[in-house]
Amino acid sequence: MILRDNTLPRATLVESKSFGEVNEIICAPTNPVRTPKTWHILFLGSLSLLCLLGVMLAYLVWEGTGIWGVNMPVAWGFAIVNFVWWIGIGHAGTLISAILFLFRQKWRTGINRFAEAMTIFAVMCAFIFPSFHVGRIWVAYWMFPLPNSMGMWPNFRSPLLWDVFAVSTYFTVSLLFWYVGLVPDLATLRDKATSKMKKVLYGVFALGWRGANRHWQNYERTYLILAAVSTPLVLSVHSIVSFDFAVSNLPGWHTTIFPPYFVAGAVFSGFALVSTLMIIARKVYGLEKVVTMHHLDNMNKFMLATGTIVAYAYAMEFFIAWYSGNPYERFAFINRALGPYGWAYWIMVSCNCIVPQLFWWKKIRYNLLITFIITILINIGMWFERFVIVMTLHADFLPSSWGYYRPTWVDWLTFLGTFGLFGTFFLLFLRFLPTLAIAEVKGVMPEASPHHGHHHQEALTSGGQH
Amino acid sequence: MEHAKPLGIHQSADGSRLDASDSQIPVKLFGMLAEFASPGEIYEAAKKIRDAGYKHWDVHSPFPIHGMDRAMGIGQSKVGLIAWVGGLLGAGGGFTLQYWVSVHANPFIIAGKPFNSYPAFVPVTFEPGILLTAFGAVFGMFFLNRLPTLYHALFKSKNFHRFSNDAFFVSIEARDPKFDLQATEKLLTEIGGKNIEVVED
């Protein structure tokens, strides 16, 4: 399987002819002299929000979950909305790193490291919500099948327990995938390091990588296996997240469309956030030569495709609610669109179904400002999608127990705080680690082919054997 | 010794005479390092070193070079096998755990389902299967590559650190039965190697 680059003109993937220049461009942000003022301001802001998160969580542990707005009938409030939103964002990272890798989409090299980092930090934010929602966080280990003197074991028939396994596996595998990808690039930073401390720190994490072909052979096989297992993994994770809803017997939740619809929505919001962050980072760090408009255009097309799938799912849900003839199911959907939370429903529809349709126009896909605004709107829309789904709870089977969920200030500040967690880690990543997969970007340059240039004729004759 | 002068190569750092035909080499050698300018050049060079019959040698590049395994004449990676065993252990272990917990350790009737409600056990069979496949692949790769190896003779070379930037190297180890200071140097020069140097262990 020769990775031919004939399908695309060279300039669209990497606008550089020299490996050395690519090295310089990608390593530049790790040079303290090049750290822009914006970074310091953003880092300070993020760190403050992270402290806020810490305070809010400490308050919750001290006081109990009563300080959140959750109550009957809406026992799942912001906690689950934010959990699903954050974890969904993470999924685009895995899609880019694993699925696009399996499909040999070489443009992924421009954005995969970035997206994988986003995955890991987003899953960390997601983790916060269910863990603290259990209330007595000090016994959160009860969720794991650990032998204990109470003779107590988890119920393996519950989707909430499946979630524990799915999310923790997802986090671990994403971290391994990210780290394995980083090893050769950490070696690059080690070899470029000027100070002793950097040399030692990067050196330890680079594990003594020497770019040996006998190592690359095992390395590439490992990478392929990780991609091959991450692909079903990412689909399973969001399917299992959707089972939290779909396995219950509630009108509006108990539907078979949930797993694919959740996965599409996750990819949709994740691509939007990758794009949001990338548009800023490539500008601030001057990465235009390695993250070209071609990359951003491709991501916009993904948003268009997944956004359309999501719109189809909304329509199909409504149709099935009517077609089922079940009055409870019909009511749940009519209530979603026209009931007390109708405003949220229409925010969701406008942001997720209508706005991304603008990407049909090439002019809009190539306009950074409009793309930026659309990606923000998409993430607002996707947050409201989960909000709308959870708010189905507000009108249950017994009208006397209907209620209206309002998040408290603690809910809001905790949610805001997770942006601090995400931002702090992401900025540290931008500052200290290679934001693009250096080895992979070099590897997709036409100059990287052993048959490049004067060996061209031989490439045509020997290419078939590989 | 950095840049090889044709004669300098026969002298080790402490000035003692080196001779490969002599069974007692005064200074222990790691091998010989040569630089190549491009993936194409090193690809051609690798084929020639393979054909010359060397066994303990390697190509060092900033990124994996396509077709290099064949050019070097090395077989398939064994990472897949380790990952496969990991996957089987994970999935098998996951199901066994759930069966044992739900049927023997804690037999509760929940929602009228049988103790062994195996369809509900699919997710927690699948996830550990994936997890241990990934562990097998990553730690198997570390094991096969003998990583971490924080100290290596090649890191002593002043040139070698550029392998992670834009340079391509061939290293031939002294433990190779065919290794010979003159003959190996001659071969590396013939196939286009630059900056040839002897690396001490």
Explain the overall architecture.
The complex is a heterodimer of chains A (466) and B (201). Chain A has 466 residues and is mostly helical. Chain A has 17 helices and no strands. In chain A, helix 6 packs antiparallel against helix 8. The N terminus and C terminus of chain A are likely disordered. Chain B is 39% helix and 12% strand. Chain B is built from five helices and four strands, in the order βαβαααβαβ. In chain B, helix 3 packs antiparallel against helix 4. The N terminus of chain B is likely disordered.
Give the secondary structure arrangement, pairings included.
The complex is a heterodimer of chains A (466) and B (201).
Chain A (H helix, E strand, L loop, with lengths): L9 H4 L5 H9 L9 H27 L14 H25 L9 H22 L25 H34 L3 H11 L6 H34 L11 H27 L8 H31 L3 H12 L3 H13 L7 H4 L2 H23 L18 H24 L5 H6 L12 H7 L4
Chain B lengths: L28 E8 L2 H13 L5 E4 L7 H5 L6 H27 L16 H23 L23 E6 L7 H10 L3 E7 L1
Antiparallel strand pairs in B: 1-3, 1-4, 2-3
Helix pairs in contact in B: 3-4
| Mean pLDDT metric of chain A | 88
- Quick one: overall form of chain B? elongated
Low-confidence stretches of chain B are 1-20
Order of helices and strands of chain A: HHHHHHHHHHHHHHHHH
- How large is the share of residues in beta strands of chain B? 5-15%
Counted beta strands of chain B: 4
- Going by helix content, strand content and strand pairing, the class of chain B is alpha+beta
Portion of residues in beta strands of chain A equals under 5%
Largest sheet of chain A: none
The main pleated sheet of chain B reads as: 4 strands, antiparallel
Order of helices and strands of chain B: EHEHHHEHE
Proportion of helical residues of chain B: 25-40%
